[in-house]
From TrEMBL:
Pfam family, one: ParB_N
Organism classification: Bacteria, Pseudomonadati, Bacteroidota, Sphingobacteriia, Sphingobacteriales
Name of the featured protein: ParB/RepB/Spo0J family partition protein
GO CC terms in record: chromosome
Gene3D superfamilies xrefs: 1.10.10.2830, 3.90.1530.30
Organism field: Mucilaginibacter arboris
Keywords: Chromosome partition, DNA-binding
Molecular function terms from GO: DNA binding
Cross-referenced InterPro entries: Chromosome_partition/occlusion, HTH_ParB/Spo0J, ParB/RepB/Spo0J, ParB/Sulfiredoxin_sf, ParB_dimer_C, ParB_N
Signal peptide start and end residues: none
GO biological process: chromosome segregation
NCBIfam families: parB_part
Amino acid sequence: MSGDKRNALGRGLGALLDDSVHVNAATKKASEGNVDKLETEGLKAVNAVKISEIEVNPFQPRTEFDEQALRELADSILLQGLIQPVTVRKTGSRSYQLISGERRLRASKLAGLTEIPAYVRTANDQQMLEMALIENIQRENLNAIEMALSFQRMIDECNLKQEELGDRVSKNRSTVTNYLRLLKLPPVVQSSIRDGQISMGHARALVNVEDAAKLLYIHHQIIEKGLSVRKVEELVRELQKKPAKKSIDTKPAPASFHAQKIQADLTSKFNSQVKVKVGQNGKGSIEIPFISEDDLGRILEMLDW
């Protein structure tokens, strides 16, 4: 490691952690290739760990990282050093698993560092998952769907009740419940929440719509017309007053996987609950429902009618 990178590794840590002895020693040992001799555990013991020995966190709830933001962080690390160490757990004599700090780890790689400062903690898989999720929920700008998925994972994999989860992440039960309800929305709506096309307020209004065709119609209107949350709430109340058409109670044969895939793709494309029916003789039909003349016009326009 060059002298510049050694300085980038440790600069600022002493001031931040009030632990300059550990930081300086960690940097010195890292430069001498004796990282393991200094290794200690705890919140104030900072170790220099080789990036090549760190495995990414398999429990990381964040699935997308902004490349431009990562490059900006990498530039900052080159100028000022990695101010905040990552947190890892030891899995072997020279192997670690990341608990928190994946953005910092990725940016450090982009900056060309080969070693970074890290806290080494002891944790089993469940504790690892819980720490990673809580760290992200409390400190990272997760979108609403990532937050909801994180909450659901903590409930399912850490065996927590909603009240217990609220205590762990410093949120009341109603907030936790509102996030979890987002996971009941159709995938196309969840994608819009994740991509920032509709807000949490819009989503909370949509959750109350039980009819899939109406829900997808409102979702399309939000995106096409930029409807406010209040307008969406009014539209939901208006459409909820209109009874849905009753369908004949029949039990159709289960659709094949291929038919289900086509149905899902068309539902996403038309923002309407498309139904694909295929008989045993290979014949069938495609049904694209609409709930207003405007909605019909939209569908016909997409069909280039």
